[in-house]
Design brief:
globular
Length: 546
């Protein structure tokens, strides 16, 4: 056996030990173990990670270069697209009067504990040098609720947005926008207002945002936790199983009913007859006609929570019709949202790519397939998933503030999974490139490329660039004393720079330059550009850009 093979085997063995140690720490987290119990286990994990780092150094001192699982580097084109997405989202949020905040990337462990149901196992736990047990934030909602609870007088009524990274130890599918480190774009309204008015605006904001991003063919599924809880109650689900059964029902967008029923009965111990009765409700979807059907269900409407939920949905439909977005909404009783903090209306946005391939035929696997001889998910077997989700969470702030009224500061919000949106838009760009089309998103923002013809005119190009920079015009030039004209035009074409400013010895001596608008490889070449006096260049370029 070679030395390199031995090293790889040793590294694999340490990785297994690390996985086992992480599992032990997650168990301690779920049990809310004491610092005394957790500290030595964290120390052992540190020892193992140090050992793995040592084994990762190959002969010759070279380190295996890779990003951690579920993360990626962002190249210039990706960053340009991401900036476009963020700018578009921020514009919509600001249009609706929202202000922005920021919170720490990690929170005290106790702040996040117990807020995410079965997904709590996906939280990354930390320990800082001061001895506080901390965790990387799982979403932006819980930190926002903590922020409001700490500042109730000033921010008990606030419409805010927040764009920042969150972290989840999930199984990644990176081509589908599923990462362990990813951005969320959140819009939330906190405060006491008349029923469903803020909820309707959140849905309006979501529709406007996805339209502005040119996401095609999306649907927003809506449901109400009170209606869902009432359905579980009349079907015979014990109170202590409602949330775990909700989590199973929520998988109906990824798995057929037969698989969801099997999980409820075999894995979670629900009576088969109860599961069958649940199935008569949670497979229903529609619009106002579905609400009318539920209101005519005397058994369901005998439940107070069901009546409250139905009244909310009736108001919601009325307000969404005013906003002109009702046609983008599907009332879907399978929508459950697994997070524990939701109390009322819940929703998520999906596209045709959300479900796994083959799901419509009822053949979607319960779990994503693994690649042969590998722990990685076969991404061809998974969908993008929901691209945005949210709902009402009236008790979360009260949970932190210790108020006698748990709903003292009710809240509603929506979170956009920007990486999933990004994956859709990037695929669109790749498809356009494959067809030989120019992309609407440029990785370089330069508006002008200063070029020379004949003599290099280096100092002159530098002077022109400085003049453009001083006037707020984005410009650059090739760092060569005597660059070839073809090489300069190649940069312009590759980066899709809209204007070329050409310097020629004769024209420069006469105090003029030539400005040529670049149309790409398909231009006729007959356009020689327009001769412009040097002292009028900045004004000319600004007028063209405008």
């Amino acid at each position: 056996m070679s030395q390199s093979t031995k090293g790889a085997d040793a590294a694999a063995a340490v990785r297994e030990q690390i996985d086992a140690q992480l599992a032990k720490l997650r168990q301690l987290n779920e049990e809310q173990a004491s610092t005394t119990a957790v500290t030595p286990e964290l120390a052992q994990l540190q020892t193992l990670t140090t050992r793995l780092s040592e084994l990762s150094v190959k002969k010759g001192g070279k380190i295996t270069l890779k990003t951690p699982k579920g993360t990626r580097d962002w190249d210039p084109l990706s960053m340009a697209l991401r900036k476009h997405v963020f700018t578009t989202i921020e514009r919509v949020f600001a249009t609706h009067g929202a202000v922005t905040i920021d919170t720490p990337v990690f929170e005290l462990k106790e702040i996040l504990a117990g807020k995410y149901g079965e997904d709590s196992k996906l939280i990354y736990d930390l320990q800082d040098q001061g001895g506080e047990l901390c965790s990387l934030r799982y979403d932006l909602t819980v930190p926002f609720a903590r922020f409001v609870a700490m500042n109730p007088t000033e921010y008990g009524n606030i419409k805010r947005y927040h764009i920042a990274k969150v972290y989840r130890r999930d199984q990644p599918a990176m081509t589908k926008g599923r990462f362990r480190e990813f951005y969320q774009c959140d819009f939330d309204i906190a405060g006491t207002y008349d029923a469903m008015i803020p909820d309707a605006e959140c849905l309006c904001v979501l529709v406007e945002t996805l339209d502005a991003l040119e996401i095609e063919g999306f649907t927003i599924k809506v449901n109400h936790r009170k209606l869902l809880d009432a359905i579980f109650s009349i079907c015979g689900v014990p109170d202590d199983k409602i949330r775990t059964i909700s989590s199973a029902v929520d998988k109906l967008d990824k798995s057929p009913w037969t698989e969801v029923r099997r999980e409820m009965v075999e894995d979670k111990g629900l009576d088969g007859a109860v599961a069958d009765k649940i199935g008569t409700y949670v497979q229903l979807h529609g619009g106002r006609e579905l609400l009318d059907r539920l209101k005519a269900d005397t058994e369901l409407m005998g439940n107070e929570r069901a009546r409250e939920g139905a009244a909310d949905m009736e108001l919601l439909f009325e307000y969404l019709e005013v906003y002109g977005v009702l046609d983008r909404i599907s009332f879907d009783l399978s929508l459950a949202r697994g997070l524990d903090y939701y109390t009322g209306l819940i929703y998520e946005a999906i596209t045709a790519a959300s479900a796994p391939p083959g799901f419509k035929e009822g053949t979607a696997p319960a779990e994503p397939k693994k690649k042969k001889d590998d722990d990685e998910v076969d991404e061809s077997t998974v969908g993008v998933g929901s691209i945005a989700a949210g709902g009402r969470y009236d008790h979360l702030v009260g949970m932190f503030s210790g108020s006698k009224r748990p709903d003292a500061v009710p809240c509603v919000g929506v979170s956009i999974g920007v990486e999933r949106v990004f994956s859709i838009l990037m695929q669109r760009i790749r498809d356009a490139q494959a067809r030989g089309e120019r992309s609407a998103v440029r990785q370089k923002e330069a508006d002008v490329y200063v070029m020379s013809m004949g003599d290099g005119l280096l100092l002159e190009r530098m002077r022109v660039c400085k003049m453009l920079w001083d006037n707020g015009i984005k410009a650059e030039f090739l760092y060569k004393k005597k660059p070839k004209l073809q090489a300069q035009f190649a940069v312009v074409d590759k980066e899709q720079i809209p204007f070329a400013v050409l310097l020629a010895p004769g024209e420069w001596a006469a105090g003029t330059v030539r400005v040529k608008q670049q149309l790409g490889k398909d231009e006729t070449g007959e356009n020689k550009g327009e001769e412009v006096k040097l002292d009028a260049l900045c004004g000319y370029i600004k007028s063209k850009l405008a």
